[in-house]
What we know:
The complex is a heterodimer of chains A (402) and B (261).
Chain A: H1 2-9, E1 19-20, E2 23-24, H2 30-48, H3 50-64, E3 70-72, H4 74-80, E4 84-89, H5 99-113, E5 117-122, H6 126-138, E6 141-147, H7 148-153, H8 155-163, E7 167-171, H9 178-191, E8 196-198, H10 209-217, H11 219-232, E9 238-242, H12 247-253, E10 262-270, H13 281-284, E11 286-290, E12 293-297, H14 322-330, E13 334-339, H15 340-354, H16 360-367, H17 369-372, E14 381-386, H18 394-401
Parallel strand pairs in A: 4-14, 5-6, 5-8, 6-7, 9-10, 9-14, 10-13
Antiparallel strand pairs in A: 1-2, 3-4, 11-12
Chain B: H1 3-13, E1 18-24, H2 32-43, E2 47-51, H3 62-74, H4 78-88, E3 96-99, H5 102-108, H6 110-120, E4 124-126, H7 136-144, E5 148-149, E6 152-153, H8 159-168, E7 173-176, H9 190-199, E8 206-209, H10 215-222, E9 227-230, H11 232-239, H12 244-259
Parallel strand pairs in B: 1-2, 1-9, 2-3, 3-4, 4-5, 6-7, 7-8, 8-9
Amino acid sequence: MSSAKNQIQHYNYPDKRGYFGDYGGRFVPETLMQALFELDELYREAKQDAKFKKEFVTMLRTYAGRPTPLTFANRLTEYYGGGKIYLKREDLCHTGAHKINNTVGQILLAKRAGKKRIIAETGAGQHGVATATVAAKMGLQCVVYMGEEDIHRQELNVHRMKMLGAEVVPVTTGSRTLKDATSEAIRDWVANVDNTFYIIGSVVGPHPYPMMVRDFQSVIGKETRKQILSSEGKLPSILVACVGGGSNAMGIFYPFIREDVQMIGVEAAGCGLNTQQHAATLSKGTPGVLHGSFSYLLQDKNGQVELAHSISAGLDYPGVGPEHSALKDLGRVKYVSITDTQALEAASLLARLEGIIPALESAHAFAHLEKLMPTTSKKDVIVVNLSGRGDKDMMTYAGNNQ
Amino acid sequence: MNKITLTLDSLKKQKKKALVLFLTAGYPKIDSTISLVLELAQAGADIIELGMPFSDPLADGPMIQASSQQAINNGITLERILGQVNEIRNHSNIPLVLMGYLNPILHYGGEKFFADARNAGVDGIILPEVSLEESARYLFLTRKHHIADILLVSPATPEKRIREIDKVSTGFLYCVSTTGVTGRSSVGDINSYIKRVKRNTKKNPVLVGFGIKTPADAQRIALHADGVIVGSALIQRIAQGNSITQIGYYVKSLKKGLNTI
């Protein structure tokens, strides 16, 4: 335990090869290796450049709508009768979710590299919309890969992307969801690496993406820290966030990693952990290689990747970011899971008590409060990352309430 | 000496170009592999590459993706593929190279896999998503079991890196003809690219693959290389239901194209 503690205090991942302990790396066709080296260098230079930092901060403030508020959830707090619950309001970002923090950062890198064509993968469509949005703002061509199954369940976001001028390419291979959309986006990148910038939407993929996306998203945790210190005069006791690929969770966790703050990542248990229908990669998976990095993975007895299932398209992914795998093994973050039904109930509760309809993804984080809150005391402060709003999920919610 | 090196050395002495053919193991039927390999060997293939199907083949185009998915549905596994290699070895000595993705191998157990592969009669391995940087993960195992590590170079690989990859690679250097996935045709001046690769390669023969479909393609591309690799075009013929005789005829035509350089 003490050695794990020591590792946390010196936490400085990834290393130069893009590893978070055992996890991460760069497992891509040779054609992309040069592009990844260049991206790594581009990002390291940009990070040192005050002008780039200013551009990023300014665009987040004047375009994406940051800082987002930290809302005290007084009725939800009363309902549970334990610690005080705060909500980090990423649902109030432009385009309706935290995804834009990352796409703003990456589009500025694309511009710096002089790339004219942007590609992205999307599950729930939130990352696709956030990418199409910044591509429009910068006047760049945008192609989004989306599984056919997701195109059906997230129709509204497809219309948004098209209106924003993006081309949405339906992916009809495999499970027709995020996993296959990601594979197609990578294949596109291999073929068009000269003129194309690939904006990955989560803390997944080959190095430097997991690091870069985490850094761009960590604005969530930095703001939370400042806001909670000003309202409570102390750091939160517990942070709760949902985990699909894991970008909103890394974003809120990262600035607190060396602090005495408990962290809980909530995965999608779909129809239940004991069924074949879930997306709880960290709870039920084993380490392996998918989409460019070594990380926990849902796989069968032959090492073939298994299909994930979640009612939430954004969590319906059989992989997870390599840094989450490292944090799990270190015991720094506790990973739990929530079923489809529990998530739906939590969304209704939040809507009625706080006047906020959360995205289905974020609803998973709220559902865990049922279990967590009875173990807290009035002195505790809990921050839940409300990663996105629920407009895109209204058809699912409406169908469920009939 | 490794059978791949023996074969390529002997071709070189005869001033001939090598023909490497790719088959998806377990496709179209789970046990088709054995008779197909034997037919290809008979028809003039110098080396056979057996694709180990993976659910998420990042480096592959639609043709090989579809055949891989069919083979997985047929029930193909690494154990079964090694069993097929074992069976082929009762009838043929043709060099056999496995091509695939890292995850099923890690799941099987790296050490055990390369030991079992060697025992079955495998001569080489190609893992297109494992770069020079990540190859350290298994390189010591392939060395230990005398399996050739065939690394890839692409049009995006700088000259210095080609030289580094040549140093680590054994058997041959897999020269990807295009930036893209398998089955995608090369564009632009392929000859100057192949010459650049040849110029920076000291140790290994250079074999070119991706997008080679016809005897004319094979002839044109092999001009400055040591041989060619044909995959998607062969899988397409199998998918269209070509008989084993028709497949044999196709292979002979490719071979003829190469022999008239």
